[in-house]
């Protein structure tokens, strides 16, 4: 029963780590997840870093049964603007009785420490359900759960551009170059989830144009009903 459980938001990137974090949180049942917090780069109208269209983000959250909480940020985004706008969302959450934010971080201690430091004294407690799980078994568990995703963005210093748009599956894991984390936790790649146990239905997403920008390779992912046009951005 939802009654009596602490209310939480999930930090939703559109990718596999946030999706699997939600799956694990719902499986355990400790929290009532009441919304998804996502930064969107307003210059491109896309999920920040991942470059995923807002139409897909909205379809994801509808299928996951999560009300969106969009945090618009400019491009480029000075850190003070990012922190101010996130701070507004945290304050709003506290006013609404939300006590936790769930993050999909895996092992980067500096990122975890930053999140914890920014939430100290706010009334919000960070939760890291996937923290320190070995990433190859974790990647296999994601795939085995029925989670399906595409690589939306790749760091061209770490992966060839043709990896953008590939499915996150067993063949991808086998093809990753030595030194690339199976979950891309060092920023080697970012994903967009299109199906999984958290969704009421799969999303009809197809791969579109591939572009390179600022050292990253992007694959424009589109819902089948949308045109294959529009810039892929940061």
UniProtKB/TrEMBL annotation:
InterPro entries in the cross-refs: Diphthami_syn_dom (IPR002761), Rossmann-like_a/b/a_fold (IPR014729)
Domain of life: Bacteria
Domain annotation Diphthamide synthase: ranges: 7-221
Protein name according to UniProt: MJ0570-related uncharacterized domain-containing protein
